[in-house]
Amino acid sequence: MMSAKGDLLAKAPAGDAPDMAAADALPWFQGGDSVPTHFGMVGLLQEKGMVVDLGAPQPGGTRPIHYRRSSGALLSISVPLSMTIAAGDFLLVKSLTCPDGAVRPVAVRPPASPDWIAIADLEGILRHYGAGASRFVRWSAGAGAACGIAALCGVAAPVTALAGMVAGVAALGLHRRDRRDRGRVRRLIG
């Protein structure tokens, strides 16, 4: 009795990379750009592959599919049920390369379709990596407000006023940088 993974690998052996001649005719590349952000370097990986297997529909209106890249790597993603695709079709995938080395697929499309279909929550991914900055902004804004109140009350006014001003400026600067970096990543994905 073969496992599901073993059955899938038997359908397309690891050394047998798909014939990518048809996909190579597409105006497509396997590299991408990257942007520096306050939480690290974020890159865009654009890849093409051949669909090897379609999984059973899942709750939530998605279906897992397995595809093989031209390098021979077998990968799995979940696509909406509304996406028309069959085993043997080529698939184009946009993935984010994250600062911790993770590669997260965010959009997919069949070569015949001009429209990308989002398969991941980009805002959720950015929130995960920007969580430290968000905490710093909240704490700095709180510290700035507390120092400002203490300065108004006359408790060590010069020192607290300066600390409050520095914390407030740091929070504002990082908040603006966070918004700018999120916009750059959104433009990178397109």
- Compute the separation of the termini in Å: 45 Å
Rg, rounded, reads 23 Å
Structural class: alpha+beta
Percentage of residues in strands:
25-35%
By DSSP, the count of extended strands is 7
Instruction: Report helical residue fraction.
Output: 25-40%
Helical region count? Answer: 5
- The domain count comes to 2
Shape: elongated
Low-confidence stretches: 1-20
Largest sheet features: 7 strands, antiparallel
Q: Averaging pLDDT over every residue, what do you get? A: 74
- SSE string: HHEEEEEEEHHH
Transmembrane segments: 73-93, 143-174
Keywords: Membrane, Transmembrane, Transmembrane helix
Model description:
Keywords: Membrane, Transmembrane, Transmembrane helix. This protein is an alpha+beta fold and 190 residues long. The protein has two domains: 4-120, no CATH class; 130-189. The chain contains five helices and seven strands, in the order ααβββββββααα. It has helices at residues 4-11, 21-24, 122-129, 131-152, 157-189; strands spanning 34-37, 40-54, 62-69, 74-80, 90-97, 103-109, 117-118. Helix 4 (131-152) runs antiparallel to helix 5 (157-189).
